[in-house]
Amino acid sequence: MQTYYGCYLLQSLTNSNRTYIGFTMDPRRRLRQHNGEITAGANRTKRWRPWQMILCVWGFPNKVLALQFEFAWQHPNVCRNVRDKVAHLKFCKLRNGRQSPVMGVTPNLQVLIEMLKATPYSRMPLRVHFLDEAAKSQLPKMPAARALPTHMTFTLGSFDELERLCYESMMMIPVTSSVCAKCSGRLEPADRVVSCPHCECPLHLTPCALELFPKTKGAQLIPEGSAACPSCARPTEWMVLIRGARRLSVSPSLPDMECQAEHFKNQEVEDDVCSDAELRDDSSEEVELVSQDFSEPNLSQSSMASMPAPECTELTSETEQRPKRKLSASRSASSGPQNNSLDCQGPQVPSHPRVLSLRERLAKRTAQRAP
């Protein structure tokens, strides 16, 4: 079982005779939807809110079978697999060719028991989880419940208990050996494997595990009865054994899963150490490159000052051809003393030739304007 597929039975708290049957993949969330706490609830359940969940039937191999079970539970007299089983129940009747609704928890529970004894559903690894203790107490009082298949389990608890059971059923039994317990053949990738629920020894699904059970007759495909495990000799039913069936993706080369987990753990540690060493090597190389860049001799200011200045060419423009204007006495007095020379602080650094020519022209102009 890889995903939860289940059908549930609801009972109204305002009218105990009102019930509802549905399908869900999350019972806790679905109950909140029916009670209006969150959206996407059924329209038929709006009037009789609030609701309580009585039980859940889960363990279906796929969604299609779960939906078929829901329809058969809602229409027991219409479904061909169930109508012969519920023919003796007086409350299951047809009105104008349609199924009359089955009201109450006890009648729906009786229909459920008859369905679990029917051929298609009695061979499925189904489980019934009760969330109401009063409904669970009615089960031993029903004579039909004594003929239920022995591989079906009935549990009682809250939603947390149901989630725990689902988690345990979805956790596959680990493959503790790389050899089949019956044929002693090696388990290869893509092999379908089952494990004994008692000793956890692996078996090939076909033909090893199938040969342990009595041969089927006629058109019957699913074996009946129980078979003894070739390793521990304890009896196991087919429906219990088939719950943990899966296809191997990797052949188990190690004898124990703990050793395999330890192997992968050590491999991860080695990969981490190697990656750390590579990072240290890369960082040391970067540090060496940076140190080499800083160790190269830089051009000092004195060396830059001793460099020969590039030849400067005079740029002629319209401003040079204009006549020089003389400053008036009032403007010269208000402007204060004029600096006849450029006072440059620090060493002179050669610049672009255009900058040098502009400096020379500015010096010439200040010299011409001086009285």
Record the SSE blueprint.
Blueprint lengths: L5 E7 L6 E6 L2 H8 L16 E8 L4 H12 L19 E2 L2 E2 L5 H12 L2 H4 L4 E4 L2 H5 L15 E4 L2 H12 L21 E4 L6 E3 H7 L14 E3 L6 E3 H4 L4 E2 L9 H39 L5 H6 L11 H4 L7 H7 L17 H17 L2
Parallel strand pairs: 6-7
Antiparallel strand pairs: 1-2, 1-3, 3-6, 4-5, 8-9, 8-12, 10-11
EC number: 3.1.-.-
Cofactor: a divalent metal cation
Family: Belongs to the SLX1 family.
Walk me through this protein's architecture.
The structure is a single chain. The chain has helices at about 25-35, 65-75, 105-115, 120, 135, 160-170, 205-210, 240, 255-295, 300-305, 320, 330-335, 355-370; strands spanning about 5-10, 20-25, 50-60, 95, 100, 125-130, 155, 190-195, 200-205, 225-230, 235, 245. With about 375 residues, it is an alpha+beta fold. Among the domains are: about 5-170, no CATH class; about 170-215 and about 225-265. Strands 2-1-3-6-7 form a five-stranded mixed β-sheet. It has a three-stranded antiparallel β-sheet with strand order 9-8-12. Residues about 255-260, about 285-305, about 310-320 and about 325-345 have low confidence and may be disordered.
